[in-house]
Each structure stands twice: as structure tokens, then as C-alpha cells.
Write the C-alpha cells for this entry.
Amino acid sequence: MAPAQTLLVVDDDPTVRLLTSSGLKKRGYQVIQAIDAEQALCLMRESSPDLALVDVSMPGRNGFEFVQAVRNGEAGIANRERPLLMLTGSDDVQSIDQAFTSGATDFITKPINLPLLVERIKYALRGAEREKALREAQMEQASACKLARLGFWQLNFSNNALTWSEDAAEVLNCAALPESRQALLGLLNNTDSLRLTTALEAAWEGQDGLNLEVTLHLGHSERIVRLQSDPKTQEGHLIGAFQDVTALRAFEDKALYLAEYDDLTDLPKRRLFLNLLNEQLT
């Protein structure tokens, strides 16, 4: 059975704290309490609650300022994305707008309707769990892409603008990447330029997906890059992936060389020698 989720109730009114905490404990939550923003920030750093219910009107820093402090990292980096629900006796548009501008997850008016509050809490906690799972998946994907030297690109056929994933330049070990189709073709030799142009046109017409390797001449270095995409375009865009296979091709070339040549004398091994002799004799 999963441990009970912890909620932080922040309110300077002891009656509201008592009634709210009691009702939430009956629903299976663990509840900790704070009377002002400073105590609440300390409790968030120490206990890292799953969600905080924050009253707007408090001595010292008010609820809006508390929410801003949490979002700015004062309660610790781990708490910056915590769900923060604001409780207030005001339901005017300005208060609601200020709550969400401050970074509140939700806005609930007093007097508190406990069944409704519980449902809003459940919704906010589920949303936080989805966001956490999404962030973890994105981090795993980014890590896997980095290890595989993989990135993404997008070509807009209406203006030939070319965009790359955020870490593409790092993957390809270069200062900047071409921002247009013409600039990309300018980094290729004539043969690769013609091959890529033909492949892009075929992909644009929906005939075939992009799947070829080209050598990018990036300043003082060269990178062998595999470009791939689906044949279909979405709203005039072609979206694809790239992989830096420079090291892989170098390894394959080295392995082929070692299979065919003696690494001490650089002379052909018997199999290669016979193949070369046979070519000369035929």
C-alpha cells in the first residue's frame, strides 16, 4: 500500500487550520501546518510535502508572495514544481489573475467546501504525477539521444528554414548548424548535395522517407551524419532525426582494415592478397 500523501496547510487562522486539517486527515492524507510564509518555507524544505494549501491573507509575506518564493526556489529546487492551491475569501477577477500569475496551481474560495476541496486536491496531485512522469521520460529520452549521438531536425518547405533540436550543435561538436536548406547543402560535396536534394524532393512529394548518410564539412572537422524522416509532411514541414555516425564508421573502417591487413607490416593478409591477385589475373 502506498504511503499517505503529505499536505501542507498554511493559514494564520487556527480555526481554519484545524477544520481543514481534520477533514483532510479523515480522507487519508498526512497534514502538517504553518501559520505564515516563513514557517511554511521551512516545512517545505524539511518535509517536502506533496501539495500546499495557502491562504492569501497572512502576516508578513502574503500567499501570493509565498507562491512566488516557492517558484523561485526558496523552498528548495525539489519543491519548485509542487502543486500550490490558494485559499481566499475573494473571488474577484484581479485576485484570481494574481494567483495564477504568481504561479498558483489552482484557486479556491472560502468558506471551504471540503468535498470540493478534496476533489481539487486529487486533481492537482494527479496532474503533478503526470508532469513528473513526463519530465522523467524526457530526461531519459535526452540521455539516450546524447549517448546515441542522436538529434532532431525540421525543414519548412515554404521558406526552406531549417531548425535543429536544442543540443544538436553539441552532438555534432560544432559552434553552429545551418539554418536553411541552402546552407546545409553548402556544407556537402557535390555528390552528397545532389543525393540529399533528390531525397528531400522525394520526401516532400510523399514518395519515400529520407534515409541516407552525408558528410558535413564543419570548419576544420567533418562529421558523417545519417538523416532520416518519414515521407509525409505536416503543414509544409518535414520532421526527421539525425545521428552522428562518424565514430561508428571509423571503427568499421578500422575493423575492416585489421581484417584485411597485417597491423605490423601493413601488408595484405593472405585472403586479400589472393583476391587482389585474382583481380589482376582476370
Summary: The beta strands are 6-10, 30-34, 51-55, 84-88, 106-109, 150-156, 161-164, 211-218, 221-229, 237-244. The two ends are 78 Å apart (CA to CA).
